[in-house]
Design a protein that fits this description.
heterodimer; A: mainly alpha; Arc Repressor Mutant, subunit A; two-stranded antiparallel ribbon; globular; B: alpha/beta; Rossmann fold; two-stranded antiparallel sheet; 30% helix; 29% strand
Chain lengths: 118, 244
Amino acid sequence: MSDIMDEMDPRVLDFIRKHVTSFTRWDTLRFLSENPHTCDTAEHLAMYVGRAPHLIVAEAQQMAEQGILNAEVTGGHTVYSLTDNKELRQIIAAIVESARDRTFRMKLVYHILRAGGQ
Amino acid sequence: MSKRVQTGVPGLDEMLHGGFLEGSAVLVQGAPGTGKTTLGLQFLHTGIVKEDEPGLLITFEEFPYSLLRDANAHQWDLRALEEANKLRIIFTSPNILLSNLQSPTSPLNRTIMNWGVRRIVLDSVSHFKRITRDRSQLRDIYTTLVNGLKREGITSILTSELSGTKLYAERDKLSYVVDTILMMRYVEVNSAIQRALLILKMRGSAHAKGIHRYEIKPGGIQVTDRFEGLQGLLTGMPVRTPKR
């Protein structure tokens, strides 16, 4: 299994290890990459990806602290959107595109499980 | 004389005597599947491709990637227009949009100002009813929304879900706030479903009063001929007009 993991682009692998540490994060990042001008609360993002709100609330806040998401307070609500950083957006889009392939998806799942995320 | 903003829908611009009035707010009412979103996309695509007018589509329910896919069926490459910073499809919720419109420094207002956005489609304003059940508060919200869009001279389409045979969404009074109302609906004629479009209201302009057929084909909506010899079209089940 570790041999398969070594075949990944080092930038992609590094991003996955650092940031795609739970299925909740993966769902959120995939949704925001496929719908790149989404800006909404964590509770609504949870609705869009079909996950429990409390999970997305915690992950969105952490991802914002890590610079993966933007967080902006508007009208008393914290609104999240995908980072404006083009390089990060490209990496996330590349992961989303690659994940259409079953083998890549297995690698992704392996890393998420290894990170112990939900 | 006010400038006209062409919709790009063959037949509709003629009904509108040249197009919507620039800076006006247009309510497009119809049941699911009647083509409200398609009309909005066609309006934005025409603005960008033919008039070089950047546009925004703000959607509250349908995911942007699914709109991009649907637009491909009409040969509208919206992804390319997004990459060229001519179009942005924003997915958000009504209360966030409202807060964004009210704040001068919000990302939405920055995009409107920086891009010189001329056309906006909101799909659909029916979702604003999620904010409050209070009718007067809802009317205030609609007024703020429409005025927020008009402030920059933007021509806007607001889609709204409507079923049954009623002509106006009386309950929330949105009909009073907008300048123009288009209705798109299904009608049964000779045991087949057809689509009908009419202009209920157009403040500050003359317009066609007839009820016209329209079709949704690859390439978008096309308004064709006027229904003749039928009455009760808006009930959905018209009957032949008796001969005198």
